[in-house]
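Hey, I was hoping to borrow your eyes for a little while. I'm sending you its amino acid sequence along with the backbone structure tokens. Take your time with it, there's no hurry, and the full record follows here.
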Amino acid sequence: MKEDKTIRKKIAELERESRKLCDFSAQQNLLNKSATEYAELFYHSNHQSKAFQPFDDTMYQIFDKPLSEEGTDSEEIFSFIEKYIISPGLNSASGRNFGYIPGSNLFASAIGDYMAAVTNRYASVYSLSPGPALLEDRLIKWMAELVGYHTGAGGYLSSGGSIANMTAVVAARDHAGLTGKDYPRAVAYLTKHSHHCIDRALNLAGLRECIRRYIPMDDAFRMNPRELNNQIIDDVNKGFIPWLLVATAGTTNSGAVDPLDEIGSIARLHRLWFHVDAAYGGFFLLTGHGRRKLAGIELSDSVVLDPHKSLFLPYGTGALLVKDVNHLVKSHDYQANYLKHVESENVIYSSADISPELTKHFRALRMWLPLKLHGLKVFKEALEEKLLLANYLWNEFSNMKDIETGPPPELSIFMFRWVPKAGDPEEMNRKLREALLQDGRIFLSTTEADGKFCFRVAVLSVNTHLKEADILVDVVKEKIGEINN
């Protein structure tokens, strides 16, 4: 009994301390106030902030301090967050961020994430959390309808395009019935401008030995259907096993859209799994221009879309759609004793049944809330704006002295390079890149096309408008002038 009392006393002492983590006391109120004030300041001042803040290796020293046993004042914490965590490097939410595929910072999505974290609902299994599971299922059905899939389609919300593409590769592998002995003869078809995560997905799916055919592209960096068909026929005649064909609806490098209708017909003819990586370009289907450019996407067996790209959501929001959800079910079948009594009556397939994740963030709320709050019309108009801005900027750069532009944007990405009359173009473009980084008002990423150093202009931030586009042109002109002088 005495020992029992001692244990109870110790538990009570620990409880007093552990409750500090959850008590909505004055400290939590202050934390909530500080976070709200910081968010408001960020939203109101972001249009004036730099797109890129240079930093140096002293960052390592700042973060090289161990966590302390005692807590820290919230004011000091938020000062550290602003100075050392948020400010240095790329401001992804800036309207003058034209690099990579720009991210956005919809306030409604932030509120959705806040509510998801506060309630921490388990979103992976229908029988435990029917609301989150059904919400995700409804969003998947909406995206499937957008792509052109019908009854029997399914999928899940992922952390992004990489994990979604990997899941598609696994489903395609299993659909083809490939086993280890087949891998050295199995052939996947893609292009040199396919996203690198496709190659990585093949490796992670155990297919490192798989043959990869990089199909030649046309002058606009789109897969050549005739070359593709000839290559497949040649591989069949040589005893290889064609099984996967990956097309891209908006390449990261140049924004090119492969001819999906022609490629889809070839895939059907040769009975290949047709996968479309539309991580960047998929939601342009909400526009008339996008529907025309992406015609044929409905022929695919699977599609990846990233709402954190062309739907302006925060990073960490991807999606995989499969025309026949049973392919995902077969590839992700599992048995676990501790989950035997949480099975549903097949009302829907929970994401745990059709994806690699068992525990996952309640991602659906960050996507559903802004769509529900604002309606689809404003998203469509924002995408139309980005398409027009990209064409406007391409024309501006095409008319600039000593600037060489790549193909006109099919969606909202294009390339350009500086070709000065004096000096090595490669060296001069690198000087221009460094000058832009040090200035920081705008941010551009770079790439290589046909062996040449190029700048990429990606117009996709929800905060990018005509003013930001004009600043981009002006800053590039200004830095070229300074380098020439």
